[in-house]
Amino acid sequence: MLQVIHELCSLAFTQYNVQKIEIYVAADNFASNKVAKNSGFHLETTQRESILLFGEFHDENIWSLLQNEWNGN
User: Fold this and answer.
1) How many structural domains does the chain have?
2) pTM higher than 0.85, yes or no?
C-alpha cells in the first residue's frame, strides 16, 4: 500500500502540479492511519462522528501532504 501512495503522490505532484493531497480515514481504522503516517502525511484534524459506516457513525481522521513536504523518494 505504501508503494501505491508513493506512486499516486508522484503522479499528482509532478504531472498535475497538485498543491495538497488529503486522505480521509476512519479514526478506528488503525492500519490505514498507519499507512498515511508512514507515507509522510500529517494529521490535520479528527472530525467527530462524521462518517456513517455499517449503520454507525465513526470519527474520521484527515491526513494531508503538501507538495513542498513530499520528498519524492
Assistant:
1) 1
2) yes
